[in-house]
């Protein structure tokens, strides 16, 4: 009986997070209050880390699919 291959996780689209960071950076450029700038900075860093995680998951998933394709092709 053939072994069922487990599918890798496909991460969500990161474009919305990139748009959010761009909006925050634009707002930050006009903000004078230090506390507000600090809050924006924290949000930007959190969004960028989320984007990093999504992109890492996407690279890992694509490697799994690439390897599976090459194994099938080689048979």
Briefly, what is this?
This protein has 75 residues and is mainly alpha-helical. Helices cover 73% and strands 0% of the residues.
Report, as a whole number of angstroms, the end-to-end distance. Answer: 17 Å
Structural class determined from secondary elements: mainly alpha
Strand content: under 5%
Number of DSSP E strands:
0
Low-confidence blocks of residues: none
Broad shape? rod-shaped
Specify the biggest β-sheet.
none
- Give the overall average pLDDT: 82
Helix content: over 70%
Number of discrete helical segments: 2
List keywords for this structure.
mainly alpha; 73% helix; rod-shaped
Account of the protein in words:
With about 80 residues, the protein is an all-alpha fold. It has a domain of about 50 residues. Helices cover about 75% and strands about 0% of the residues. The chain has 2 helices and no strands. α1 packs antiparallel against α2. It is rod-shaped. About 0% of the residues are buried. The mean pLDDT is about 80.
